[in-house]
Task: inverse folding
């Protein structure tokens, strides 16, 4: 006898599950299980606490990174913020004052510039934390990010507390000392009827040129505008020069000086004078002024007032422009103003045929309103027309 050879090959049932055909595809459940196994990321252990984590640049978990690196350590957690009781404004970092509302975006932007070290990290989010209104505290929850090592960015959130303190601003200090204004703009027009000045007042209200003034005082011949800054008075002076014929003078007065630095504090005065000419005034121009304007007749009417004076000849309807500089070189007053006008009623009109070398015209019978009631004899007025072909309409 031969000894039977022992077989070391495993049974077929141990290698693969029984199936009717070896070429049969795996089931849907088996395919999903295999896909889940392939999709699972590779896991490692934290080098500090041996917690299973995903691989990163330092092979450390978030808790170990926060214990080792504190990115918010360089940011001040408590900040002093000054406010003014008189005007409820907040002090900026540069020493200026801003009027903002509580829990507003403007206040948030102002407070974020206060903490020391906040510029060294990247600010992600900032929000208010509710506090008691009487606690004189403002709390902000800040979220910051910073790259601790190459490829590892750490994010951290913490609360910054602002302690509100009282500090009087410069404006309130001057108000308490009754020394509130720095510059004044004095607007004057020396005429009996201030039609141009009233028109200037409407323009100031329309364009809101008075918003920077801290006080407006009425004077005999005009108004005084008081400002906290010299630039505001210069702005008002520039506005008046653009809308009306004016001239101005400036002056300053020394209030106090510092003997150590040599710096002084001044008060500035801008005196603005309007031309004493209003719309509807009758003017008798000086001979030199009439020649400068454009060889116009000396008797003219003021048709319009803007930054220049518009004149018109009542006989020929010729227009001219009078510049403020020309007026101030040789000043003159209005011959007749609007108060000298008299109301009349036209009773009849007789059209006259044009004669040789003469313009066509008409004769009108007029009388004062009071004279009509007492049947006064009407006066005859001659009306001339520059064009022979044009005749006045008869109504």
Result:
């Amino acid at each position: 006898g031969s000894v039977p050879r022992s077989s070391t090959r495993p049974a077929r049932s141990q290698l693969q599950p029984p199936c009717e055909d070896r070429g049969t595809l795996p089931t849907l459940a088996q395919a999903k299980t295999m896909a889940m196994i392939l999709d699972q990321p590779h896991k490692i252990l934290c080098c500090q606490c041996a917690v299973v984590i995903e691989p990163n640049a330092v092979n450390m978990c978030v808790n170990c990174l926060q214990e080792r690196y504190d990115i918010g350590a360089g940011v001040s957690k408590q900040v002093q913020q000054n406010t003014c009781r008189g005007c409820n404004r907040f002090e900026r970092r540069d020493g200026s004052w801003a009027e903002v509302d509580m829990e507003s975006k403007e206040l948030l932007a102002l407070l974020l510039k206060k903490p020391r070290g906040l510029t060294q990290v990247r600010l992600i989010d900032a929000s208010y934390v509710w506090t008691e209104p009487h606690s004189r505290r403002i709390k902000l929850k800040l979220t910051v990010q910073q790259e601790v090592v190459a490829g590892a960015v750490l994010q951290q959130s913490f609360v910054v507390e602002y302690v509100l303190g009282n500090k009087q601003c410069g404006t309130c200090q001057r108000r308490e000392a009754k020394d509130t204004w720095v510059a004044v703009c004095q607007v004057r027009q020396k005429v009996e009827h201030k039609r141009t000045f009233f028109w200037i007042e409407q323009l100031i209200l329309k364009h809101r040129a008075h918003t920077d003034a801290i006080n407006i005082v009425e004077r005999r011949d005009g108004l005084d505008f008081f400002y906290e800054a010299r630039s505001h008075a210069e702005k008002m002076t520039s506005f008046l020069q653009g809308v009306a014929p004016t001239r101005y003078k400036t002056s300053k007065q020394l209030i106090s000086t510092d003997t150590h630095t040599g710096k002084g504090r001044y008060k500035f005065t801008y005196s603005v004078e309007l031309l004493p000419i209003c719309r509807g005034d009758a003017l008798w121009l000086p001979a030199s002024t009439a020649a400068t304007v454009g060889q116009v007749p000396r008797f003219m009417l003021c048709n319009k007032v803007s930054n220049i004076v518009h004149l018109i000849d009542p006989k020929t309807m010729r227009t001219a422009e009078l510049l403020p500089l020309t007026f101030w070189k040789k000043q003159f007053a209005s011959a007749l103003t609007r108060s000298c006008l008299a109301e009349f009623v036209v009773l009849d009109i007789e059209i006259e045929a044009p004669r040789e070398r003469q313009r066509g015209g008409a004769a009108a019978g007029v009388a004062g309103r009071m004279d009509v009631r007492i049947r006064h004899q009407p006066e005859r007025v001659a009306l001339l027309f520059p064009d022979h072909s044009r005749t006045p309409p008869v109504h």
Q: What stands out?
A: Residues 216 and 265 are 22 Å apart (CA to CA). Confidence is low (pLDDT under 50) at residues 11-16, 18-23, 372-376, 382-395.
